[in-house]
């Protein structure tokens, strides 16, 4: 359940293409007595060993449960196939079309007997269970048909097999697929095929589900479900970048000499009126300028920088004697789930389950994601969490986890309602489809996909008539409420 993003030099550029999320529900939740293979799995190992070859224990052919993926692992490395109604190795130019498209499995944990294994992109990431096959299934090809019909069939099969939220985002697959099939013709051009597939996604309202590809030398992207505020600001004079620059400028001015703008522009913190700690996180990662995105070294550097910033901020809060902290996630665009869990870890002295995940078609029990108290400075007083309809993905996972903490009061506006990590699937012609296949839920089983998480204390954060000034007004109103406690 890693939501990857490519680090960029500025948070402003990153936010222009930030991902949105969806958490969904689909079939009834998996029974609690369903398999929990992570409990019996062997210690984590790297697929590629120190000498550059693969670990012999993991070589062979493996098929996933619930993700429509097949891995062929030989001495030289890992080759991924898409498998469903057909089995193929997609045509690619070698260029990653998205952050999720740029990473591959790096770790594994063998299950007893060696016939199944858990694969992960990063340490502590989603447990994707694969089963060993004797050989590559008959019909799997490295030269897939790329006709309009073949591409459309793979596209529709991916949605039918893996999309988890048609019950929350109607109409369902059958109606959408009928529109696509009616448009497909053998002689149609790429642009016409693109329009047909894009039509399937119209009104889906899921920002984690998107189609990306090159058509006639032009990069195209179809993505719905951006909420109300972002489309409005992108259409305004100066666009989203100007809005963000003004927001941060006012925040820094109001925080005065206590203001810190750090973490590669992704974190702002300070103290309000000498009595309330303030921490705003714009993105769950990208705190360094490293370009080895997704690697173990990248992950370690990201966590080290995040912890350094949090240590400094929370030590300053303690020195100032603050009695409450405002945690501002109202402009958080998501990112790495490990950071989303590390934020609530700074506000608890006890471990607890923040949320659970289960993948459609996996047959596994929901996996509990623990929030473990951070080893560095923590804050044990009242926390006032601020969100808006911009808050999405990893920002919503942090919100969901924080809502399990009785000392957290949630204010602002309802979050976007997009939780699921995007499942990236290359179509036979090289276009990339990302869709939501994982169901994120609160420990009690409540799912907030599409609906979002509603605050306990409603506040307008980015009103249409004051999208810049309105934000700090909301912060000041929250600070005034704290003063009345």
UniProtKB/TrEMBL annotation:
<feature type="domain" description="Tail specific protease">
    <location>
        <begin position="240"/>
        <end position="460"/>
    </location>
</feature>
<dbReference type="InterPro" id="IPR029045">
    <property type="entry name" value="ClpP/crotonase-like_dom_sf"/>
</dbReference>
<dbReference type="Pfam" id="PF03572">
    <property type="entry name" value="Peptidase_S41"/>
</dbReference>
<keyword id="KW-0732">Signal</keyword>
<protein>
    <submittedName>
        <fullName>S41 family peptidase</fullName>
    </submittedName>
</protein>
<dbReference type="InterPro" id="IPR005151">
    <property type="entry name" value="Tail-specific_protease"/>
</dbReference>
<feature type="signal peptide">
    <location>
        <begin position="1"/>
        <end position="22"/>
    </location>
</feature>
């Amino acid at each position: 359940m890693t939501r990857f993003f490519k680090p960029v030099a500025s948070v402003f550029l990153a936010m222009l293409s930030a991902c949105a999320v969806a958490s969904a529900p689909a079939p009834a939740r998996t029974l609690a007595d369903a398999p929990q293979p992570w409990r019996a799995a062997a210690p984590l190992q790297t697929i590629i060993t120190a000498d550059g070859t693969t670990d012999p224990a993991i070589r062979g052919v493996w098929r996933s449960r619930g993700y429509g993926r097949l891995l062929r692992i030989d001495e030289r490395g890992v080759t991924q196939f898409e498998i469903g109604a057909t089995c193929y190795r997609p045509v690619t130019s070698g260029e990653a079309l998205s952050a999720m498209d740029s990473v591959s499995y790096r770790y594994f944990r063998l299950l007893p007997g060696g016939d199944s294994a858990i694969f992960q992109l990063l340490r502590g990431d989603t447990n994707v269970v694969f089963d060993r096959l004797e050989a590559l299934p008959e019909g799997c090809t490295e030269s897939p048909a790329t006709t309009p019909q073949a591409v459309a069939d793979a596209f529709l099969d991916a949605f039918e097999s893996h999309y988890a939220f048609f019950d929350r985002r109607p109409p369902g697959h059958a109606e959408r697929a009928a529109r696509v099939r009616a448009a497909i013709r053998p002689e149609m051009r790429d642009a016409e095929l693109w329009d047909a597939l894009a039509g399937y996604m119209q009104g889906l309202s899921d920002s984690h589900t998107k189609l990306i590809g090159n058509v006639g030398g032009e990069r195209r992207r179809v993505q719905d479900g951006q909420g109300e505020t972002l489309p409005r600001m992108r259409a305004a004079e100066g666009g989203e970048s100007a809005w963000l620059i003004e927001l941060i400028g006012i925040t820094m001015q109001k925080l005065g000499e206590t203001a810190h703008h750090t973490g590669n522009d992704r974190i702002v913190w300070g103290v309000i009126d000498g009595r309330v700690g303030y921490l705003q996180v714009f993105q769950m990662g990208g705190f360094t300028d490293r370009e080895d995105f997704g690697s173990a070294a990248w992950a370690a550097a990201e966590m080290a920088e995040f912890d350094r910033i949090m240590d400094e901020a929370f030590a300053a809060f303690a020195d100032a004697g603050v009695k409450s902290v405002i945690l501002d996630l109202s402009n958080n665009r998501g990112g790495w789930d490990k950071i989303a869990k590390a934020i609530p870890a700074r506000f608890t002295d006890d471990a607890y389950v923040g949320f659970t995940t289960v993948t459609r078609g996996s047959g596994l029990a929901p996996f509990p994601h623990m929030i473990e108290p951070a080893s560095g400075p923590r804050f044990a007083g009242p926390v006032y969490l601020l969100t808006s309809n911009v808050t999405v993905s990893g920002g919503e996972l942090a919100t969901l986890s924080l809502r399990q903490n009785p000392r957290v009061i949630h204010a602002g506006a309802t979050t976007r309602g997009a939780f699921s990590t995007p499942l990236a699937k290359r179509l036979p012609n090289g276009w990339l489809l990302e869709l939501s296949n994982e169901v994120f839920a609160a420990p009690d089983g409540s799912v907030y996909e599409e609906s979002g998480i509603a605050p306990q204390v409603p506040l307008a954060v980015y009103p249409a008539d004051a999208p810049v000034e309105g934000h700090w007004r909301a912060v000041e109103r929250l600070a005034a409420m704290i003063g009345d406690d």
